[in-house]
Every structure is written in C-alpha cells, then in structure tokens.
Amino acid sequence: MKMRISRRTVSGLLAAAALLAGGLARPQPSQPVPPAVEALAAKIAGELAQHCPLADANDAAAFDSCRAMLYGDSTLRAHLPPVLLWGRQSANPQATLRQTNLTQFAPDVWIALYAPLFMFNGRYQVEWVPAEKQFAVRLEAAFRNRLAPGQFPYPFWHDDSKWGTYQNANGFLLWVHPATLKVQVAQLTDRAQNALLQAVTPVQQAKFDGKWLWTDAAGRTQPAVTLFDGLYRAENPYLRDLDRQYRDLALQMRESQCTSCHVPNNPDKMSRLVLLSTPAHAAGEIDRLIKSVKEDRMPMDEYRNSYALSPEDKKWLLESAETFRGTVQAARAWEAQATRAESRLPAPWQPVATGQRKEVSQ
Ligand code: HEC
Q1: What tens digit of pLDDT does each residue of 1-30 get?
Q2: Can you list the positions of beta strands (E) in 230-285?
Q3: Is the N or C terminus of the chain more exposed, i.e. has fewer CB atoms within 10 Å?
Q4: pLDDT single digits (tens) 295-304
Q5: Measured from the CA of 83, which atom of ligand 1 is nearest?
Q6: Which atom of ligand 1 is nearest to the CA of 270?
Q7: Torsion sign, CA atoms 20, 22, 26, 30
Q8: Sign of CA pseudo-dihedral 256, 262, 267, 273
Q9: Which of 223, 33, 235, 241 is nearest to 134 (CA)?
C-alpha cells in the first residue's frame, strides 16, 4: 500500500535528470530523509488511511468517525504547531509557500473542521524540498464533496475555483519542519501526480448569499460544525451560550470593521488570512483577538495602519470577546470532564471483576 521515494530513487532520478539535461542541470542539493521523518510520515499516512479511508463522498458517518479520531489522540494532531497555515496549492506551480496565500488556523480548529473532509488510501511520498527547507509529505487524497452544506466550515462554493479545487482534490500535502517535526503548513491540491482516487460527482451548491453563518429551516445555526456539532456532546450545557455570545461578538466585530477583512473571501487580500467568521474560528483565535484589540493593533485601515477604536467600541468589543472566551473555556472543560468520567466507567460488555484475566496481545 505505502510508497515512498527512497534515498536511492531520488539520487537516481536526479542523476538521470542531470544526464537528460546534458549535464547542464546542477543536481539539487538533496537531503536524505531521516528515519524520524520517514517514521512520522508513515505513521500519519497509516492513521489517516485507517481512520479516514475512502468512502462515499456523502458518507456522514465516515466523516464523523474520521473527525473523532483525528480530533482525539492522533499523530497528526500531536504534530501541529500553535498556528498552522492551510490552503490551496498556488495556481502558479513555481510559487513558493511564502508567495502562496494561506489561512492561519488554531490546530484544534483545523483538525476538527478541515482535515476530516478528506479521505486517504495510505499512499504517500516524502521528500526534502531544498527551496522550502522543509520535508513535503505528499498524500493521495479525495474530498467529501457531497456532505450536507453545514458540514463544511464555510461555503467553499462562494468561489467557483476554490470549490472546484476542493471537489477534485487528489492530494494533501504536509510540510514538516526539520527541527521541530511539526507540520507547519498543510495544503490541498487537485494537481497531484496520482489519478483521482475515485470518481467525483460534482455538486452544484445553492448560490452563495453572502452569509458565513445562517439559520436553517429547523432554526439551527449553520454551519453546524462551527458550533462544535459532532465534537462536543449534545448535552454540553454551554452550546447555546456559545451560539448567542458569538452572535453578540459578531455584532461588535461588524461595528469595529473586523468583518470587512477577517472573512473567507479575504477582501483585504491578506497573504496569511485570519478567520473570525464563525464561533469555531473565533474560538480558535480568541486570545489573539483580545490581545490585538487591547494593544490597539487591530483594527487596521485600508492602508493597513493600526488604529485605536473609540473607547466605547473597544469596551463593548472586549466585553463581548471576554464573555465568549469564558464560555469557550467552560465548554472545553465540561467536555474534558465528561471524557474523564466516561473513561472511568467500566466498559458495559466487560465484567469488572472475574476470576480469570486473559492477556490480549495485539
Ligand atoms: C483592513 C483590514 C483589517 C481590519 C479591518 C482588521 N484586521 Fe485584523 N488583521 C489584518 C491583517 C492584514 C492582519 C495580519 C497582520 C500581520 O500579521 O501581518 C490581521 C491580523 C489579525 C489577528 C492576528 C493577530 C496576531 O496576533 O497575529 C487578529 C486576532 C485580528 N487581526 C483581529 C482583528 C479584529 C478583532 C479586528 C476588528 C477590531 C480586525 N482584526 C480588523 C487586517 C485587518
């Protein structure tokens, strides 16, 4: 199943390329892939294939179990930095990561809302990319394009080209820093070397109406995933407050111009976008949000000069942000407590104390 470029293949290919180019092409400084990076790539690829295998692109149960596993004790999650960059591979194949527009994510937001939208077959390649000074782990992947609209963190179809790339994705790239072994950057692409993993039935979504958050016919806030649906227990007593308090915060952010820049269509063309447009996205950024407003670094004007809000606006914005942060922390603590309580319960199918205990070896 698994595949990787071995050291020997790389140098062989480079030598062949140099020969083909008549000796003109200088061989790229190649760095062997150290065992720790090989092992990490193999482990991540194996877990992804195990927990997020190919399934129908509308299989909500497969999405849920993939998400629960990645959000739990996964190797991928354990190797995310405090801020992860994520986005499409640049349309320009020559563009470096630095020249590529990407979005900043808190690791728990990305692992819960973005990574599980992909399915994997376990095949990957890992190589050192000298221009980036990072290892690239290139995984074959497919995208769950036929989930319900509320399962996507925002309507990717606000932009046809973006939705097209997501729908036809055939690769998922992880850029691994050589010193920390953290995944600094993750990207999706529809231009990986491999074929599509399965046939794609394109979905024509309803025209985007400009709302990043909406209420469905049943009165539920959507996208449901951005209200921790499927991540937090339905009994979590803080869910309703999170919804209401985010809406208060969103009003203040609109008042203070934040929403004219920090939204997925990226009106300000930020090269490292920060999203504040849903409860989950704002929860991931809430500490930075409060800090940057307190220090008068945000908002910015059209020339990207910071300016201080009026004392009134600043007070209301900070008040609603701090209230929201309190509830985010309480909701997380409640979940952690519930998980601990569950793990203390004996599994229902297992008698607690029997005379004999069998060692189960795996
Ligand atoms: C004119 C566009 C614009 C507006 C309006 C704006 N921002 Fe920003 N924001 C930016 C840019 C650009 C950056 C990236 C700055 C950088 O790191 O270079 C940024 C970064 C941030 C960050 C990450 C900061 C960090 O510590 O790295 C947060 C949080 C943030 N903004 C919150 C806000 C809030 C809250 C508001 C409203 C009070 C706001 N922004 C208004 C453009 C804007």
Answers
A1: 444 544 444 444 444 444 444 333 333 556
A2: 272-274
A3: C
A4: 999 999 999 9
A5: 27
A6: 12
A7: positive
A8: positive
A9: 33
Upper half-sphere CA count for residue 322 (Cβ side, 13 Å): 9
Q: Is the pLDDT of residue 351 over 80?
A: no
Bond before 223 cis per omega within 30 degrees: yes
Residue closest by Cα to atom 17 of ligand 1: 272
Query: Is the confidence at residue 67, as pLDDT, over 80?
Result: yes
Burial 309-334 (b: 16+ CB within 10 A, else e): beeebbebbbebbeebbebbeebbeb
- The rounded Cα 11 to chain-centroid distance in angstroms is 33
Longest dimension (CA), the chain: 76
- Strand, helix or coil at 147? coil
pLDDT (tens digit, 9 = 90+) per residue, 180-203? Answer: 999 999 999 999 999 999 999 999
What pLDDT is recorded for position 22? 36
Backbone region of residue 138 per phi and psi (left: phi > 0; alpha: psi in -120 to 50; beta: other values): beta
pTM value surpassing 0.85:
yes
**H helices, E strands: number in the chain:** 9, 9
Beta strands 84-88 and 183-189, pairing class: parallel
Q: How far is ligand 1, taken at its centre, from the CA of residue 193, in Å?
A: 36
Beta carbons within 10 angstroms of residue 218's beta carbon: 6
Contact 109, 86 (CB under 8 A): no
Angle at 36 between CA 35 and CA 37, to 5 degrees: 90
Tokens matching residue 140: 């074959």
* pLDDT at site 349: 58
Site residues for ligand 1, CB cut-off 6 Å: 253, 256-258, 260-262, 268, 270, 274, 285, 288-289, 292-293, 298-300, 302, 304
Structure tokens that stand for 88 in this block: 């499409």
Helices 279-294, 311-344: crossing angle, 10 deg rounding: 130
Angstrom distance (rounded) from CA 171 to CA 4: 15
CB 135 within 8 A of CB 33: yes
| Other Cβ atoms closer than 10 A to 250 | 21
